[in-house]
Amino acid sequence: MLNYLARRLVGTIPVIVALSVLVFAFVHLLPGDPARLVAGQDATPEDVQAVRVSLGLDRPLWEQYFRFVSNAVQGDFGTSLKTRRTVAEEIGERFMPTVWLTVFSMIWATIFGLLIGVLSGVKRGRWQDYTGMLVAVSGISFPAFWLGLLLIDLFSVRLGWLPTGGYGTWQHFVMPSFTLGLGVAAVMARFTRSAFVEITREDYVRTARAKGVPERFVIWKHTLRNALVPVITMVGLQFGFLLGGSIVVETVFSWPGLGRLLVDSVSYRDYPVIQAEILIFSLEFILINLAVDVLYAVANPEIRYR
Questions:
Q1: How much of the chain, in percent, has pLDDT values that exceed 90?
Q2: Domain coordinates of the chain in residue numbers?
Q3: Which PANTHER family match (predicted)?
């Protein structure tokens, strides 16, 4: 197991290096001059050049890149051009709201998706199956921004049951977590049903039924347990997508998280914050995939030797 983990860790190093290059190149290809933004529109060319020198933007790109990587390894992502606070402080304030929103969305989406998927698999070809898959397809089809605005109009504007946005109480979590998790629940339901149906066609399941094993034991002991192994991978991947996909939801519900901070930073061309956020989102996705691979190896030891 340790050898497998070591191989996976070593394999992430080239990915992280390539990722840092892409993030740096992407940010520097964005239109606009950060030195002009910091100095102000009325600044003279000399003032703009002085700001450019102070920010290190007059240096060659390769030197800027290595300075960026060196500082990032130490947790120093520079200073926000908009607030003049350190990027670490800006991200630190927004990190936990995004994590909590993602966790709550993932919990309800996983539970709901598994229940719908298992029910559809058990009742394959019946009205429960068709209803569950109709709900799943509908959940995938709804755009997050449209669903969020619809929920705000219904439960906040018309009924007054929930706040339109913000962060702090459990009421603030209801609509954002539902909006963010609906698509994941739909994907989980369809994936679980497919895995469940595939397992029921295996010989050992047919043998158990032929021996007269009660159906509930066939479902819970033989079928569901084995069907959940590939679902582990799906849960991890969807968790990573939720972290990145929270941008739209946080903007719609004025959620003080990393997604909204990224949108505000792009609008202001706050390059240090943009670089740090994209890098952090990407690293989170890589680490989640690594954790999923390890969990999958624990659940299915056969893949450790491939």
A1: 2
A2: 2-73, 98-305
A3: DIPEPTIDE TRANSPORT SYSTEM PERMEASE PROTEIN DPPB-RELATED (PTHR43163), GLUTATHIONE TRANSPORT SYSTEM PERMEASE PROTEIN GSIC (PTHR43163:SF5)
Closest listed residue to residue 259, CA positions, set 97, 104, 143, 78: 97
Retrieve residue 266's tokens.
């792009």
Report the alpha-carbon distance of residue 269 to residue 32 in Å, rounded: 7
pLDDT (average), residues 219-233: 72
3-state secondary structure of 79: strand
d(CA 261, CA 278): 11
Let me know: does 106 contact 181? Beta carbons within 8 Å. yes
Task: Identify whether the C-beta of residue 48 lies closer than 8 Å to the C-beta of residue 36.
Answer: yes
Q: Classify domain 98-305 by CATH number.
A: 1.10.3720.10
Question: What is the number of other CB atoms lying within 10 angstroms of the CB of residue 111?
Answer: 13
3-state secondary structure of 86: strand
Residue 254 backbone zone (phi > 0: left; psi -120 to 50: alpha; other: beta): left
Calpha distance 165→170 (Å, rounded): 12
Which residues are within 8 A (CB) of 217 and not within 5 positions of it... i.e. 6 or more apart? 208
